[in-house]
């Protein structure tokens, strides 16, 4: 019997993204942290050299992490490993694919490499996740081949307000498209600068064609549950876990809160006695230059 | 028919949509008390270590064993199949151990090696569009476990009594044949099992 097996198809990439739903993806900077995340029930880890809070503090150019560091984390855990490339830096993405990472985050947390263009994600076998602030931005990234979307929020702040703003905006715009007549869709596509066929998909299905996660400022179990209530499919927690007083406990609590977001009794129980949350920066206190969410388009 | 989908983590919504299209009343199972009155339960794909930990924490292991002992059927896909197995290669992660088989996680490699293929399945006249995503294989199965499909000589679909396990993801396709097979031939409605 001849066997036909096709890798890297859109369905294989998006299908993989579907498997993360209802789960928590955690930023880790060492193999030890990766093992803590796995033991706490993370569905995947994001391997990077510095969490967003530290990138923010240190300043300078933030780039793809050292391959050695990424491979160290790949070898430490059995769960999927994601890693970040700079916006538009398709060579960093090629390197990450060659290392065998399971997902690439084309991320505004790193310093953008291209002010005009994002990576053509259709060129890759490995799936991509991209940040977005609104529906048009999400559909542009999906048009370029992203298999998963996440809110940008405001990374490294521990302030959930921007993630909430982006989630509400995207979900509100989806409802607005759904309520349109078919003959209004082309104008909607023009106004939000989004591919027409994807606008049409949203109109017919009432959702994005790929999973949509929350990211950028989630620091507590209640934050995670809030984002799930707002219609997000799961959460990324960046600095919120390993910049807190008791990462093990907090990581476990956020995992449980994401599953049981609709059960306040469970949330009350898991929120108890977690130690200090990450200190945090109010988003309103940031200057426009300090905001990461405005990177990319 | 009342079917539950284990909704601790993973692609449970896709199973739900497929079951509803087949006329089932679907319950999302997040706590053991949600198992009451269900004829069948589906374990979705997702991350097996995450789901296993939440199963242990919320006392699902005994509850699901009881559920099965009392006539409940289970269809477990991908990560779900890992949770159903007695033996997991190189791992001591939590599991139910209901289906006697040895599973190997991520048996085809990392995500870049994930693939789709038309699969010959025993009892289906045409091939099934199978998506293997960081998929496990059923390396070996115990006595009385029927092998229903293989890929490259590796077992990827097996059944014993009221248990059905697949390495791949029928819920991500538009093909309802395996869900129908589960409902019609694996789930045993209470009236029927009482007669037996």
Briefly, what is this?
The complex is a heterodimer of chains A (297) and B (196). Chain A has 297 residues and is an alpha/beta fold.
Description of the molecule:
The complex is a heterodimer of chains A (297) and B (196). Chain A has 297 residues and is α/β, with parallel strands linked by helices. Chain A contains 13 helices and nine strands. Chain A has helices at 10-18, 31-40, 52-58, 67-76, 90-99, 135-143, 161-178, 185-191, 196-205, 221-229, 239-242, 247-259, 264-270, and strands at residues 6-7, 24-28, 44-47, 81-86, 103-107, 128-132, 148-151, 212-213, 235-237. An eight-stranded parallel β-sheet of chain A has the order 8-7-6-5-4-3-2-9. In chain A, helix 2 packs across helix 12 (247-259). The mean pLDDT of chain A is 96. Chain B has 196 residues and is α/β, with parallel strands linked by helices. Chain B has a single domain (2-195), classed as Class I glutamine amidotransferase (GATase) domain (Rossmann fold, 3-Layer(aba) Sandwich). Chain B is built from six helices and twelve strands. In chain B, strand 11 and strand 12 form a beta hairpin. The longest helix of chain B is centred in the first third of the chain and has 10 residues, at 12-21. The relative contact order of chain B is 0.17. Residues 191-196 of chain B have low confidence and may be disordered. The A-B interface holds A 1, 3-9, 11-12, 15-16, 18-23, 38, 40-44, 78-80, 97, 100-103, 125-127, 255-256, 258-260, 263 and B 7-14, 30-31, 45-47, 49-50, 53-54, 57, 78-79, 91, 105-106, 110-118, 120, 131, 133-134, 151-152, 169, 172. Strand 1 of chain A pairs antiparallel with strand 7 of chain B, so a sheet runs across the interface.
Characterize the largest beta sheet of chain B: strand count, sense, and whether it forms a barrel: 7 strands, mixed
Q: Write the H/E string of chain B, N to C.
A: EHEEHHEHEEEEEEEEHH
Q: Using the 3D structure, state the CATH architecture of chain B.
A: 3-Layer(aba) Sandwich
Helix content of chain A: 40-55%
- How much helical structure, as a percent, in the residues of chain B? 25-40%
- The CATH class of chain B, by name, is Alpha Beta
Tally of separate helices of chain A: 13
The span between the termini of chain B is: 19 Å
CATH topology description of chain B: Rossmann fold
Mean pLDDT of chain B: 95
Largest interface: A-B, 41 and 40 residues
Please give the number of β-strands of chain A: 9
Spans of at least 5 consecutive residues with low confidence of chain B: 191-196
Give the helix tally of chain B.
Answer: 6
Strand arrangement in the largest pleated sheet of chain A: 8-7-6-5-4-3-2-9
Biggest sheet descriptor of chain A? 8 strands, parallel
The end-to-end span of chain A amounts to 48 Å
Assembly of the depicted chains: heterodimer
């Amino acid at each position: 019997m001849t066997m036909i097996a096709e890798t890297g198809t859109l369905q294989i990439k998006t299908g993989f993204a579907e498997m993360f739903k209802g789960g928590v993806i955690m930023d880790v900077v060492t193999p030890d942290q990766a093992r803590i995340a796995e033991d706490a029930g993370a569905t995947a880890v994001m391997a990077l050299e510095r969490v967003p809070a530290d990138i923010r503090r240190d300043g300078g150019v933030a780039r793809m992490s050292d391959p050695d560091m990424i491979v160290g984390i790949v070898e430490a855990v059995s769960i999927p490993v994601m890693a970040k490339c700079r916006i538009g830096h398709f060579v960093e993405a090629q390197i990450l694919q060659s290392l065998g990472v399971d997902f690439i985050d084309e991320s505004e947390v790193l310093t953008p490499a291209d002010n005009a263009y994002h990576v053509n994600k259709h060129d890759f076998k490995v799936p991509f996740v991209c940040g977005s602030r609104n529906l048009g931005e999400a559909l542009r990234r999906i048009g370029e081949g992203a298999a998963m979307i996440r809110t940008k929020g405001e990374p490294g702040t521990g302030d959930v307000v921007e993630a909430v703003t982006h989630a509400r905006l995207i979900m509100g715009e989806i409802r607005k498209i759904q309520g349109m007549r078919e003959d209004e869709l082309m104008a909607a596509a023009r106004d939000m600068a989004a591919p027409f066929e994807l606008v049409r998909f949203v109109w017919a299905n009432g959702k994005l064609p790929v999973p949509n996660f929350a990211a950028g400022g989630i620091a507590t179990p209640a934050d995670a549950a809030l984002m799930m209530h707002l219609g997000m499919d799961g959460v990324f927690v960046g600095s919120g876990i390993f910049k807190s007083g008791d990462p093990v406990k907090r990581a476990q609590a956020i995992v449980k809160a994401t599953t049981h977001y609709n059960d306040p009794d469970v949330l009350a129980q898991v929120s108890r006695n977690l130690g200090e949350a990450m200190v945090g920066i109010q988003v309103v206190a940031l200057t426009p230059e300090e905001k990461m969410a405005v990177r990319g388009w | 028919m009342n079917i539950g989908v284990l909704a601790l983590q993973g692609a449970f919504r896709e199973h739900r949509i497929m079951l509803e299209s087949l006329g089932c009343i679907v319950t999302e199972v997040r706590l053991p008390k949600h198992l009451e009155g269900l004829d069948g339960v589906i374990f979705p794909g997702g991350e097996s270590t995450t789901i296993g930990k939440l199963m242990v924490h919320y006392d699902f292991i005994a509850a699901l064993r009881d559920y099965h002992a009392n006539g409940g059927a289970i269809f477990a896909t991908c990560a779900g199949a890992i949770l159903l197995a007695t033996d997991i290669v190189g791992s001591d992660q939590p599991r139910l151990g209901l289906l006697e088989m040895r599973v190997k996680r991520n048996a085809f490699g990392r995500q870049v090696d994930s693939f789709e293929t038309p699969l010959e399945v025993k009892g289906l006249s045409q091939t099934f569009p199978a998506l293997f995503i960081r998929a496990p294989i059923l390396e070996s199965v115990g006595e009385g476990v029927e092998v229903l499909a293989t890929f490259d000589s590796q077992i990827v679909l097996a059944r014993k009594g009221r248990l059905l396990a697949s390495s791949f993801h029928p819920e991500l396709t538009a093909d309802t044949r395996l869900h129908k097979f589960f409902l019609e031939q694996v789930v045993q409605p209470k009236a029927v099992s009482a007669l037996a």
